[in-house]
Design brief:
8 helices; 224 residues; 67% helix; mainly alpha
């Protein structure tokens, strides 16, 4: 039974201590900088989605749906990163360039910080769902699949850029593929992909024109 308890973080005091001292104060602050940037971006987008008021004198705006979808895209982008790169492929973990996962303790420490990362992406995703739910209660709203998909792509791209630039290049907590002979290629490819999906998202959004307020009932489904 004692041997089994070593695999439980709440039961294993040495593992708890290892997590507590795994990062210096400066590294801990650096680790949360991307969360702060993404949190501020999410708050701004949430305000844009909720503060918008329809005005009969102006065309219906693309902004509310795009902003809400963008928040959801940030959260889902985080989940894609965590599920694919951290868990399925196991190319890197949250602090795997600082604490190389060579044994049970170092692997568990990385898993703990992965959990903090996933908790953050969960709350962003949940907030995005709430925004969309509240938004869709409005009877008069410019809706189109391009706005939703474009917003998702924007959010995913923003997440990748902020997380990639800060964690991969500036703070160097991990690379896309930590143990490759040339991780820089993977990191730059990651940023290139992020820019491409942002461009694609913008293209989809700008295909949709603002809809005159008085014509929204008959034209919303036919917007081109």
């Amino acid at each position: 039974m004692d041997d089994l308890m070593m695999f439980c973080v709440t039961c294993n005091r040495p593992l708890q201590n290892a997590i507590a001292v795994s990062l210096t104060t400066i590294e801990l602050v650096q680790l949360f900088v991307p969360f702060i940037f993404l949190g501020l971006l999410t708050a701004f987008l949430g305000y844009q989605a909720l503060a918008y008021k329809n005005n009969p004198q102006k065309p219906l705006s693309r902004k509310p749906l795009v902003a809400s979808a963008c928040v959801l895209g940030i959260g889902l982008g985080g989940f894609i990163d965590g599920i694919v790169f951290h868990q399925i492929l196991q190319w890197h973990e949250m602090v795997s360039a600082k604490i190389i996962p060579l044994d049970f303790t170092s692997k568990s420490v990385n898993m703990f910080w992965d959990g903090i990362f996933h908790a953050f992406t969960f709350f962003i995703t949940f907030f995005g769902i709430i925004l969309l739910y509240r938004l869709l209660q409005q009877n008069i709203l410019l809706k189109h699949q391009n706005l939703f998909i474009g917003g998702l792509l924007l959010g995913w791209g923003f997440f990748n850029l902020i997380e990639g630039i800060l964690n991969h290049h500036i703070f160097k907590f991990h690379s896309v593929k930590d143990f490759d002979v040339n991780p820089l290629i993977w990191n730059l490819s990651f940023l290139t992909f992020s820019i491409l999906i942002i461009v694609l998202g913008c293209f989809l959004i700008h295909k949709i024109k603002h809809l005159p307020y008085e014509n929204w009932r008959t034209n919303t489904e036919d917007i081109k």
